[in-house]
Amino acid sequence: MVGADEIEAVAWRRIYVANMLGGVVVTSYLVIASPDAYESWWRAVVSFLLITGLTAALSRAITHRIFRGAREWWASGREPTPNERATILRIPTLVGLGTTGFWFVIAASGGVLMSLAPDVSGARSVGMVVVTSLAGAAAGALSFVLAQWSLRPVFARVLRDSPPGAGGSFGVHTRLVLFWALGSALPVVGILASPFAFDSDRDALVSAVALGVVALIAGFGFMTVAARSVAAPLTDVRRALDEVGDGRLDVEIDVDDDGEIGSLQAGVNRMVIGLRERESLRDLFGRHVGEDVARDALERGVELGGEVRDVAVLFVDITGSTQLAATRPAIEVVELLNEFFAVVVEVVAAHRGFVNKFEGDAALAVFGAPIPLDAAADQALAGARSLAARLGAEVPECAFGIGVAAGPVVAGNIGAESRFEYTVIGDPVNEAARLTELAKSTPGSVLASAALVAGASAGEAQRWLLGDEVVLRGRSTATRLATPAH
User: Fold this and answer.
1) Mind listing the pLDDT tens digit for each residue in 359-375?
2) pLDDT level of residue 313 (50, 70, 90 thresholds)
3) What is the pLDDT, as a whole number, of residue 484?
C-alpha cells in the first residue's frame, strides 16, 4: 500500500507545478507589457523567482496542513468516521480555494506596489492585478484537479463502504464549465474590456495579447487535464465492462471519485454484485432441480400444471438403509449416501437424463423431460446397466435395487404458486418403483419392463434377457420382466 507521506509528496509536487505555471503567465505579462522588454528582463526574473518561491513555500504548507488529518487516518488502517470521510473528500476543494486566495493576495499586493512605482502607469498596475488574478484562479482550479488526482488511492479507501456524494465534490459538468470559464471565458472578457480599461492603445493591445496567450495556453491545459480526469476512470469502467462481457464476475472497480464518475463506478460494482448473486442463484437453482429444468424455467417462465410426455423412468433405492442408520453414526450415513448419489447423478447425466428428486435413500431419474430426448429408452437402459456396475464397484457398502420403465406421464410443476417443484406423475413411475423393490432380491439388482426393452434399439435390446410376467404390487396388469444379459 502506498504511504500517506508519498501521496502527500506527489500531490505537493503537482500543486507546485500548477502554481509555477501561474508564475510563468504573470512573468510573461511583465515582459510583454514593459515599455522596454530588453531592459526589464531582470525584473521579470526576480518576479518569477519571488512568485514561485512564495508559491512553493505556501503550497508545501497548505498541503501539509490540509493532508494532516488524512495522513493520520491513513496510517491507522481503520475505517473513517463520517466527519473524517467528509473532511478528506473536501481536501481538493480546500487546496484549490487556498491556492486561489493566496494568488489574490499576490495580485492585490503586486498592484499596490506597482502603483507606487514612479515609472509604472496605472494601466499597467491594473493589468498586473487582472492577469495575476486570472493566473491565480487558473492555478487554484488546476491545483484542485491535481490534488483530487493524487488522492485517488485515499478516496478509494474512503468510499469503499460509503456511497459517493457525501463530500460535495465538483461533478463533471461543473468542472468543465469552471475550466472553460477560467481558461477561455475570463481571458476573452479581459480582451474585450482592454480598450475600455487602458488609456493608451499600446497598453490595451499588450493586455489583449497577454490575455490571448493566457487563453490559448490555459484553455488547452485545462481541457487536457479535465479530459484526463474524466477519461482515466472511464477507461477503468470500460475495461471492467469488457471483462464482465467476457464472463468474468470477480471484477471490482475502486470508487475514487465523489461525483458522477464515482456514482458510475459504484453502479458498475453493484451491477457485478447483482450478476454474481444471480449466477449464484441460478447455479443453486440448477443444483436443486437440475440444469435442464432450470434452463427451461428461465427461458419459458414458470407456471403450475404439466403436459403429457413419453419418457423413460429410472428408480434406484438402497437396500437396508434402516439398518445402516441404526448401526452407523448419522454423519457417516450421510457421507455414504452422498457418495452413493454422486455416482447416480454422474451416470444419469452421462446418459442425458436428470435426477428429478431424492427421496431419503432413493432417487428418481427421468429421461425425456423436461427436454425431449431421442432414444430415451436406450439411454435409460444403458444408464441402468452402467449404474449397477459402478455402484457395485465404487460403493460396495450399499446394496441396492434399480427399476426402469417407460410410458406416458404428466411432467410439470406441482404445488402452489409460492412453492412448487418439477416432477413426473404417471403409471411408469409407479411401475419403476415396484420393479426396484423386486430388483433388490434379484441377481444383478436391475429389472426393466419388457415394454421398455421393446421400444429400445436392436443394439440395446439384445443386451437384455426377457423373463417371467409378474403382477407388481399395486397394479392390476402383469409386467414382463427383463434383466441385463451378462
Assistant:
1) 888 999 989 887 788 88
2) very high
3) 92
More confident of the two residues 387 and 163: 387
**Which is higher by pLDDT, 337 or 322?**
337
| Domains in the chain: boundaries | 4-245, 305-484
Question: Which of the pair, 461 or 73, is modelled with greater confidence?
Answer: 461
Q: Tell me the CATH class for 305-484.
A: alpha beta
Question: For 140-154, how does the pLDDT look when each residue is reduced to its tens digit (9 = 90+)?
Answer: 777 777 777 777 777
- Segment 476-486 mean pLDDT: 87
d(CA 99, CA 346): 70
Bin 365: left if φ > 0, else alpha if -120 < ψ < 50, else beta.
beta
**Residue 445 to residue 437: CA distance in whole angstroms:** 10
Q: Measuring CA to CA, which residue among 382, 389, 375 is closest to residue 464?
A: 382
Label each residue of the chain as H, E or C: CCCHHHHHHHHHHHHHHHHHHHHHHHHHHHHHHCCCCCCCHHHHHHHHHHHHHHHHHHHHHHHHHHCHHHHHHHHHCCCCCHHHHHHHHCHHHHHHHHHHHHHHHHHHHHHHHHHHCCCCCHHHHHHHHHHHHHHHHHHHHHHHHHHHHHCHHHHHHHCCCCCCCCCCCCCHHHHHHHHHHHHHHHHHHHHHHHHHHCCCHHHHHHHHHHHHHHHHHHHHHHHHHHHHHHHHHHHHHHHHHHHHHCCCCCCCCCCCCCCHHHHHHHHHHHHHHHHHHHHHHHHHHHHHHCHHHHHHHHHHCCCEEEEEEEEEEEEEEEECHHHHHHHCCHHHHHHHHHHHHHHHHHHHHHCCCEEEEEECCEEEEEECCCCCCCCHHHHHHHHHHHHHHHHHHHCCCCEEEEEEEEEEEEEEEEEECCEEEEEEECHHHHHHHHHHHHHCCCCCCEEEEHHHHHCCCHHHHCCEEEEEEECCCCCCCCEEEEEECC
For residues 432 and 424, give the distance between their C-alpha atoms in angstroms, rounded to a whole number: 12
Q: What is the pLDDT averaged over residues 260-285?
A: 71
Residue 413 CA to residue 420 CA, distance in Å, equals 6
pLDDT digits (tens, 9 = 90+) for 341-364: 899 989 998 998 888 888 888 999
Q: Full-prediction pTM beyond 0.70?
A: no
Check whether 37 has a pLDDT greater than 50.
no
